[in-house]
Amino acid sequence: MSLEELVNQNYKYFSESDRAVWKYLSEHRPECENIAIKKMAQKCCVSHSAVMRFAQKLGFKGFAELKLYLKMDGQKVPVHNELKHICELYQNVMDSICEKNCDRIFEAFNAAKQHYIFGEGMVQASIKKEFKRIFMTAGYMFYDVPSGQEMYNLLPLIGKDDFCILVSVSGTNKKIVEAARTLRLRGVTLMSITKNRENTLSHLCDFCLYIGESNYFETPIHWQYESTTSYFILIEILFFKYLEYCQRKESVNEIR
Length: 256
Hints:
The protein is of the alpha/beta class. It has helices at residues 3-10, 16-27, 29-32, 37-44, 48-57, 63-74, 82-99, 103-111, 122-136, 149-154, 174-185, 200-204, 229-255, and strands at residues 115-119, 142-144, 163-167, 189-195, 207-211, 217-218, 224-225. 57% of the residues lie in helices and 11% in strands. The strands form two sheets. A five-stranded parallel beta sheet has the order 2-1-3-4-5, with helices on both faces. Strands 6-7 form a two-stranded antiparallel sheet. It is globular and about 55 Å long. The mean pLDDT is 88.
C-alpha cells in the first residue's frame, strides 16, 4: 500500500499538526527520507511528539519506521517499457480491488433510495457511462448529474438517504470537491473514484476506490497519451464482487 493511500485512510483522524507534517512531507519527500525527527518538527512548526503521533496514526511504531517506508516507496523505479508498465498497472488495480472488502459499499447501495454519479470531462463521462451501464444490469439506475449550473440546481434534491459517486481523475476538481462538501454536510453517503494519491475528494468521502498512477506515453505524432482502461477494470471487478455479495446474502437467507 502506498503512503498516500495510508494517509487517505486516516486523514479524517488528522489534527492540524498532522496535516502540517503531511504537507511538508508530501512536498519534500527526498529530503524527508533522511531527516531527523527534531529537524522535521522544526520544519513543520510542530512539537517532536506531534511528528511521532503522525507516524503512529499511519500505523508505524515511530518516525524512523515511517522514513524507512518512505524510502522504500521512493525506490520504485519507473518502468521504461511502456507495455510492461501498463500491464503492471492493470494487475495492480485487479489485485487491489479483488482484495478489498466492499460489503459496506454494497450495503449502502442497497439502502439508498436514489443513486447519483458526478464527474466533469471526457474521461469522467466515459467512466460514468460505463458505471451506469454495468450496474443497470443489477437493477441500479444511476442518475448522471450534469455539470455546470444544473449540478448546483440538483444538489438540494439529494438527501441523506441517497448514494453519490464522485469521479475525478485528480481528486481536486473544484466543482466536484465543492459538491462533495455540500453533500457531506447533509449526511449523504459518498464514494470517490480517483487516482491513488493524496487528494481532497477522497478525504470527504465515506468510501474511496483508486487506480494507480500511470505514465504519459508519447505517440508517433508527439501527442501525450494516458491509459484510462484501469477505471473500467475497476468498475467491472466491483460489479462481479457485487454479484458475489448478493449470492452470499441469498445463501444466508436460505439457511435462515
